[in-house]
Structure prediction request, 767 residues.
Amino acid sequence: MIVSGVIIRRLVGVKNRRHKVEKQMSPITSANEGRDSIMSIVRFGNTNRDLNARELVELISQKVPSQTQIDVLRDTYPNGVVRGDEFNIGSLNGEPGKSLKIDINPRSPWFMKGNDFNGSSGVGGIVKILMEGRNMKLPEIKEFFADYLDDTPRFLRDENAAPPIDSIINKSLRQQININTPFDSEHSYLSLDGEVICMVRRYNMRDGAGNPVMDDHGKPKKEFRQFTGTNPYPKMPDVRPLYNIPNISASEKVIWVEGEKCADALNEMGFTATCTMGGAGMLSRKSASQFDFSPLHGKELTIWPDNDNAGKKVAELVQDLAMNAGARSVTMLTPPAGKPERWDAADAIAESFDIANFLNTTIKYVKKTINLLDESLLIKRFQGQAPEQKFLIGDTLPLGVPIIFSAAGDAGKGMMTLDLAMKVSSGQPMSSAFGDHITEFGNTIIFTAEDDEGEMHRRIERLDPNNSRFDYEHEIRIVSLPNVGGVFPILQETSDGYKTSVEFDKIYAQIIQMQNLKLIVFDPLASFVHADVNSDPAAGAALTGLLAQVATETGASVMMCHHMTKIKDDVAVASPEQARNMIRGTSALVDGVRCAFAIWQVDESTGRRRCQDLGIEYQRNRCFDGAVVKSNGPARRDIRHFVRDMHSGLLEDRSEDITRLHSGSNREIKKDALFSWIAVCEREGRALTQQSGADAILQRMSADPDAPRTFDNCTQRMVDGIVRELLAEGRIGKYSFSRSGGRKWLGTTDGDMSRGEYEATTATENV
Prediction:
């Protein structure tokens, strides 16, 4: 199943203590010394001898519980998959795949080992996983497992290396901090009654000259200490409250940020903001039970994370904790594209960022608590005029919902979706698409997994030979995945169920920042879903739930191009219901979307007759029928008739033309149909005549299955009248092939008869 929404990823609980950035150590500065030298000799615990890397790995393996090691492994490599007693991942860099197999059977002598694991230094197991997967050094790994390694000194380093300056500062600062130590800022955590529960003080780190020490992102390094009660030394309260509780109680809407500085900045602007004590580094799945989120009960919470991975993870945890506490809704924000790492609310205010617009328009994910005792769920809330159902294509494809567009291979789905996207982006009234007219215009995105940029360029040229696309009112973005490293999965199967991929999460964070999106196309579905949607109902349900969420959050119609079973030429699809059942996949796939549109090839006899009626040459794979085969709302369900334009390759809706032909009410259509049939018969060596006999027009119409059906039930007088009009217009002529004149044959004025090149190919003597 998908956990916590589209780009909400499951955080695996890990029994560890999160290391802080400012405490990271790099005792080896020379690039030539390398990782092996880091791990070669280390002083460990209270022993008087040196432990090599192999001994350290064995000690960690003994003291850290096996389940904790497995949890760390899975958290480090979210793309990995558990198969029995093996954990499979593409490489130690984290790519999905099966190349690296790691033993996760605690009873196995090879536990946490795998192929390509043990080097000359003996570094393997969970140590190598953290070194490679998280780029951690040995001191960091030691601190990472400090809860289990009780005899571990706080600082572990190469005996001959000097400790980094920031480590000295940190250590010195920690030793001297007490209630009387000068601080840079102070924040009081108050109870509902306004009593001080705890004070949090910030201490900016400075070097020996008194200058601020900056981190890698240009921000001051700092230490936070919590003072509870009258204790003169830092002490965390037993129950850690939220910041700004009195104002939370009086507000309906609350914003959660990572620190007190950001919360204060928003509060000064008139918002109600809060945070958790200790920022992102102190709140974890392990420590969550120590935090009190109950003040958020019944509140509408908006989470504004810092712009980094740590911010994203803690934000996802806050979402779960807030929902568990009874928050009415939780809205997750995504930092705007282009912002620097660790960009936060305080930075936004400092740069005069439009906070109100950001809060209203960049919603990433909204989750609401279901409370059946809440009277807001009663039917009486539905008052006034119901909101209008909007359509991307009038009465055919709804706007803002997931849509499956299904057809057999080589039907031309890609051409139709490209044509649709171009028309939606044009901003101008254009010819119909999918059988009806465009009713909503805006920006569009196409992700194509099969067509490279060259093929897309050729298709665009055929659809738009006059380069009108350069004057479109809106934007159309086309991502040809073969040109950017290949396909990425939207949904994939993992040991924890069906989840979105890291690649999709990054792309989706950009998608939701685009304004006025009307259409998003993924073509084809099979390339973007790494799960068996064709046989597993859970996979189909996960996919459709994901699509629904994307559509809701963007307001765009999200179209997935999908395959349907190919039918034989002599088999006719009788109804939209039959076509629906031919869409590949479980019933959950079609049932889970709001709309499904299918196109299927007609049988050969129908195709030939349709081409004859329209006066065009019959070719296989030219004539199709299509219809809305599933819709949760009002939609036209009549069958449309599509015919391929052989120049552009696009399937065009010719339903109205065919209807008029079959109605027998349009003389011009009859005239065009008769002209086309005369031309075909001449080309095939079986010319027609007005005179009586087997080759006369009406006689041949009744016997020839390829004759235009528009003349069914027509009189001889009507046929003769139309022939005279064609003769008068100079489109056809009467030709004789005997000196005495004899029978007059009908042919086009630029055909074989006019050039004296006509050759009869029928059994009858028609010359």
About this structure: The radius of gyration is 36 Å. The longest strand covers residues 196-204.
